[in-house]
Structures are given as C-alpha cells and as structure tokens.
Design goal:
The chain is mostly helical. The protein has a single domain, classed as Four Helix Bundle (Hemerythrin (Met), subunit A) (Up-down Bundle). The chain contains 4 helices and no strands. Helix 2 packs antiparallel against helix 3 and helix 3 runs antiparallel to helix 4. The two termini are about 30 Å apart. The structure holds fe (ii) ion (2 copies). One fe (ii) ion binds next to helix 3 and helix 4.
Length: about 150
C-alpha cells in the first residue's frame, strides 16, 4: 500500500513502487527480530529488491523516453547513483554480516531514497505525463550508464 502523497497515478509505476515498499517492510520486520538475522535470508530479500528496483528503473526510463520527457537523463542518472549505493551496501552486508546496525542503515538508505525520489522526481514525471507544467526546472545531462 502506497501512502497517498507518493501515488503518481500511473498504474505500472504505482504497482512497482508498492511491491518495492512491501519488500522493504518485510525486510524491516526481519531486521527487527531479536539477534543477528541469518545473512543468507537477508541477502535473498535484498536480491528481490535489487531485481525489482532494476526492473522498475528500466520501465520508468522507457516510459520517459517514449514520452520525450525532457528530464529523463537527469532522472536516469539519479537511478544509477542510487543503484550503485544499493549494490555497495549489499556487498558490505554479504562481506561483513547482517548486523542490526548495518541492516538499519541499509533500510534507512533505501526507504529515505525511495520516498524522496518519488516525491521529488517520479511525481514530476507523472505531472509531465498528465500534461501539467513542471514544478522545477529540468536540465539535461549526458547519456546515463546502462544498468549492469
Ligand atoms: Fe524514478
Ligand atoms: Fe520510481
């Protein structure tokens, strides 16, 4: 379930955001259990998230290109930077263990990024799709790197 203020109104984007948020909530419940959770189980949750983030970014970026969205380069670049941070955090958990501190920092990073990104960028794109004027100025950047 997506908070009302994070709904873009686009059925695919909202459904993908909802799946990612549900998985983050599940991971949070695993992280909130007593003791250090089993690293293999945590990495399975994180892998699910990684795949869904990657698929979501591909879908959103393809919608942006199809719609000739002027902010797609900048938006895609933001996706790439988050994805790099996500993969780095995952490798730290895989290498050094799923301690409560490391998991809560991972959760904070992913949850805060998602909410800020949807509010600041995805909703802007949704406004564009509805033919509404932008609320921020968009500047083109160079071609984004492809997702690995
Ligand atoms: Fe996005
Ligand atoms: Fe998104």
């Amino acid at each position: 379930m997506i908070p009302e203020e994070l709904k873009t109104g686009h059925p695919d984007i909202d459904a993908q955001h909802a799946r990612i948020m549900e998985q983050l909530a599940l991971l949070k419940s695993v992280a909130g259990t007593e003791g250090v959770p089993e690293v293999g189980a945590v990495l399975e949750f994180i892998e699910f998230l990684r795949v869904h983030f990657a698929e979501h970014f591909v879908c959103e970026e393809s919608l942006m290109r199809d719609a000739d969205y002027p902010g797609w380069n900048e938006h895609s670049d933001i996706h790439r930077r988050f994805f790099d941070d996500f993969v780095f955090s995952r490798s730290c958990i895989a290498k050094y263990g799923a301690t409560p501190e490391r998991l809560s920092s991972f959760m904070r990073m992913a949850e805060n990024w998602l909410a800020d990104h949807v509010l600041g960028h995805d909703l802007e794109f949704a406004r564009f799709l509805r033919g509404e004027p932008p609320s921020v100025s968009l500047r083109p950047l160079s071609e984004p790197r492809p997702l690995v």
